[in-house]
Amino acid sequence: MENLFPILLGTILINNLALTKLVSIGQLANFGDNEDQTLTLGLSAAVIMAVSSILSYVAFTFILEPLGVTVLNLLVYMLLVLLVTMAVTGFVKSRKPEMHAAVGKVLPLLAVNSAILYLILDMMNQGMEFLPMLLTSIGAPIGLLFAFILYGAVRERLAVSDAPKAFRGLPILLIYAALALMALSGLNGII
């Protein structure tokens, strides 16, 4: 059995989907107007990603592959992501109705979050065993939540800064993403 801690830490920081692979960067740039909304959206995306990837692994390993219908994998993955998104949206609506009113229009967009589908497809293509898949399914959402928090903080800081007009909005966030990528790539040899 290989050492599993590097898988978890590597998925959170070094192979962070949003910061190093730039998956879902457009959604990060537009989600959340304040800290509470950003945290709620980040936690929702993390839960959807973790549960969907674990359920997709179980569906592929125990249903699709034994039945020989692996061509239906994308359809099954999207169905699972939609079901988990609906469950998380219902949970947020029942527990925090005021937050649901603020972010309710954005929560369904998490169902088409490219990071979620990228993680599922990447794990299935790699043919991971259960324990590495479980750690990746836990680490990637934590990394996505980390990216949501970082982008939320950057957006708040940029709202009060005097950025040149040409760089306001998505361009400055892409520059930030490039700087974050360079900073995180320095950790690449450690783990």
UniProtKB/TrEMBL annotation:
<keyword id="KW-1133">Transmembrane helix</keyword>
<feature type="transmembrane region" description="Helical">
    <location>
        <begin position="6"/>
        <end position="29"/>
    </location>
</feature>
<feature type="transmembrane region" description="Helical">
    <location>
        <begin position="70"/>
        <end position="91"/>
    </location>
</feature>
<feature type="transmembrane region" description="Helical">
    <location>
        <begin position="41"/>
        <end position="64"/>
    </location>
</feature>
<feature type="transmembrane region" description="Helical">
    <location>
        <begin position="166"/>
        <end position="187"/>
    </location>
</feature>
<keyword id="KW-0812">Transmembrane</keyword>
<dbReference type="GO" id="GO:0005886">
    <property type="term" value="C:plasma membrane"/>
</dbReference>
<feature type="transmembrane region" description="Helical">
    <location>
        <begin position="103"/>
        <end position="121"/>
    </location>
</feature>
<dbReference type="InterPro" id="IPR050133">
    <property type="entry name" value="NqrDE/RnfAE_oxidrdctase"/>
</dbReference>
<feature type="transmembrane region" description="Helical">
    <location>
        <begin position="133"/>
        <end position="154"/>
    </location>
</feature>
<protein>
    <recommendedName>
        <fullName>Electron transport complex protein RnfA</fullName>
    </recommendedName>
</protein>
<keyword id="KW-0472">Membrane</keyword>
<dbReference type="Pfam" id="PF02508">
    <property type="entry name" value="Rnf-Nqr"/>
</dbReference>
<dbReference type="GO" id="GO:0012505">
    <property type="term" value="C:endomembrane system"/>
</dbReference>
<dbReference type="InterPro" id="IPR003667">
    <property type="entry name" value="NqrDE/RnfAE"/>
</dbReference>
<keyword id="KW-0813">Transport</keyword>
<keyword id="KW-1278">Translocase</keyword>
